[in-house]
Amino acid sequence: MLGLIFVSLILFFMRDKKMGWYVKIWVLSVNFVLSLFHLQQSNWTFNLSESFLCWDSMSSVLVVLTFWISLMMFLASQASVKMAANKVNAFAFFLTSLNMILLLTFLSSSILFFYFLFEASLIPTLLLILGWGYQPERLQAGMYMMIYTVMASLPLLLTILWAASELKSSNMLVTPMMHNILNLKCWMWNILIFLVFTAFLVKLPMFSLHLWLPKAHVEAPVAGSMVLAAVLLKLGSYGILRCYQFFNFQIYSSSFFLLSLGLWGGMLTSMVCFRQIDLKSLIAYSSVGHMSLVLAGILSGTTWGWGGALALMLAHGFCSSALFSLANYLYEKSHTRSLYMSKGMLMLLPALSLWWFLFCILNMAAPPSINLLGEIMIFPSVIFSSSYLVPPLVMMSFLSALYSMYLFTCSQHGGSPKFVKPFSQINPTSFTLLFLHWIPANFLIFKSELVFLWY
């Protein structure tokens, strides 16, 4: 991993104005290939000063996803930023800095270091939205994102400082018997769970804490939407898993309350998808539904639930990133994101309609995607937790298929709008980008043992 960090630092400080864009694409590709060699690590390795950086197989999987999505962000922004000469150097700098912050976040073994990097990831994301967003409302969207995440993370910071002072260590690799050391009562543990998880539930996001996400997605450029959906939302679930290990949480009534709220809220957001007329807003609300399943798998407290959560995090990263890329291509051709106006694309560009179909069925967990693997593992773990959670689980599975078909039929079928000029070509880079999303989302099913290696 030292090689990955060193190469990422070189990428961060590179300032070549002429060839810097393409050099960074190649360096990210090399970093992605190097990170693949660490996927088989089953134990914590590489201690730097015993409390700084480390990785296991879960963090290695997310590091691979980070490099992959960073590479896809450069490819997706080729036309709107590079070819249009839209502040290219600043854009590349923010992307590489965000990639560096995310890499160090997933490799951090100190919970304090993890917290500060967790918050630092907001800054490049906010600057991407403000600098390359589409509409004047991007300032309000950035304000929503910052207020939600920063205010919710203050209780987490206080709890981390208190726990680190009690334990005389902030190393997440040490999993002490927290119940014996802190000696708290049951109601105190319930309050502690809320204090710790609030920041991560906002980032996840859980229903009732999700209002910032559709606003941020609608106003963000395509690269901002891709990294926000594919990687930044995973920081929430990754943080919950790490804090479960660090604080040695058990299943309390507050955990079951959050599990129930996440599932019933996920069902409601799936219904809200049918009321959306903005293409990116519909995909954003579908992300809330999928991440509520991830939350359910984590809070079930079972091995299958945690493995299914990791598989679903990967699947959602590839699928949502590709859907936002497709929405951006549709917007570039029709100059509108309205589902009422963007119709009949099947007659104008059937090749792109094929990719819409492939990723819509991937979004509804069709085989052989790892999305299906994650749901198969999460469903029994949640059902065995409580039989009262079966109705929202069944409805979420049904509604996800329904709004995926709704998304495809609204955008591809129907008469072509009169204001759209005929077009029959699209940049070959776009098809390469979509192909590179679809391949890992389906063929990682053959490496499904990765979700069990980190136990």
Automatic annotation (TrEMBL):
<feature type="transmembrane region" description="Helical">
    <location>
        <begin position="220"/>
        <end position="241"/>
    </location>
</feature>
<dbReference type="GO" id="GO:0015990">
    <property type="term" value="P:electron transport coupled proton transport"/>
</dbReference>
<dbReference type="GO" id="GO:0008137">
    <property type="term" value="F:NADH dehydrogenase (ubiquinone) activity"/>
</dbReference>
<dbReference type="InterPro" id="IPR001750">
    <property type="entry name" value="ND/Mrp_TM"/>
</dbReference>
<dbReference type="InterPro" id="IPR003918">
    <property type="entry name" value="NADH_UbQ_OxRdtase"/>
</dbReference>
<protein>
    <recommendedName>
        <fullName>NADH-ubiquinone oxidoreductase chain 4</fullName>
        <ecNumber>7.1.1.2</ecNumber>
    </recommendedName>
</protein>
<feature type="transmembrane region" description="Helical">
    <location>
        <begin position="187"/>
        <end position="213"/>
    </location>
</feature>
<feature type="transmembrane region" description="Helical">
    <location>
        <begin position="88"/>
        <end position="107"/>
    </location>
</feature>
<keyword id="KW-0249">Electron transport</keyword>
<dbReference type="GO" id="GO:0003954">
    <property type="term" value="F:NADH dehydrogenase activity"/>
</dbReference>
<dbReference type="GO" id="GO:0048039">
    <property type="term" value="F:ubiquinone binding"/>
</dbReference>
<keyword id="KW-0520">NAD</keyword>
<feature type="transmembrane region" description="Helical">
    <location>
        <begin position="247"/>
        <end position="270"/>
    </location>
</feature>
<dbReference type="GO" id="GO:0042773">
    <property type="term" value="P:ATP synthesis coupled electron transport"/>
</dbReference>
<keyword id="KW-0679">Respiratory chain</keyword>
<comment type="similarity">
    <text>Belongs to the complex I subunit 4 family.</text>
</comment>
<dbReference type="GO" id="GO:0031966">
    <property type="term" value="C:mitochondrial membrane"/>
</dbReference>
<dbReference type="Pfam" id="PF01059">
    <property type="entry name" value="Oxidored_q5_N"/>
</dbReference>
<keyword id="KW-0830">Ubiquinone</keyword>
<feature type="transmembrane region" description="Helical">
    <location>
        <begin position="113"/>
        <end position="134"/>
    </location>
</feature>
<keyword id="KW-0812">Transmembrane</keyword>
<feature type="domain" description="NADH:quinone oxidoreductase/Mrp antiporter transmembrane">
    <location>
        <begin position="108"/>
        <end position="397"/>
    </location>
</feature>
<feature type="transmembrane region" description="Helical">
    <location>
        <begin position="343"/>
        <end position="366"/>
    </location>
</feature>
<feature type="transmembrane region" description="Helical">
    <location>
        <begin position="386"/>
        <end position="408"/>
    </location>
</feature>
<feature type="transmembrane region" description="Helical">
    <location>
        <begin position="21"/>
        <end position="39"/>
    </location>
</feature>
<feature type="transmembrane region" description="Helical">
    <location>
        <begin position="310"/>
        <end position="331"/>
    </location>
</feature>
<feature type="transmembrane region" description="Helical">
    <location>
        <begin position="146"/>
        <end position="167"/>
    </location>
</feature>
<dbReference type="InterPro" id="IPR000260">
    <property type="entry name" value="NADH4_N"/>
</dbReference>
<keyword id="KW-0813">Transport</keyword>
<dbReference type="Pfam" id="PF00361">
    <property type="entry name" value="Proton_antipo_M"/>
</dbReference>
<keyword id="KW-1278">Translocase</keyword>
<comment type="function">
    <text>Core subunit of the mitochondrial membrane respiratory chain NADH dehydrogenase (Complex I) which catalyzes electron transfer from NADH through the respiratory chain, using ubiquinone as an electron acceptor. Essential for the catalytic activity and assembly of complex I.</text>
</comment>
<keyword id="KW-1133">Transmembrane helix</keyword>
<keyword id="KW-0496">Mitochondrion</keyword>
<feature type="transmembrane region" description="Helical">
    <location>
        <begin position="59"/>
        <end position="76"/>
    </location>
</feature>
<feature type="transmembrane region" description="Helical">
    <location>
        <begin position="282"/>
        <end position="304"/>
    </location>
</feature>
<keyword id="KW-0472">Membrane</keyword>
<feature type="domain" description="NADH:ubiquinone oxidoreductase chain 4 N-terminal">
    <location>
        <begin position="1"/>
        <end position="105"/>
    </location>
</feature>
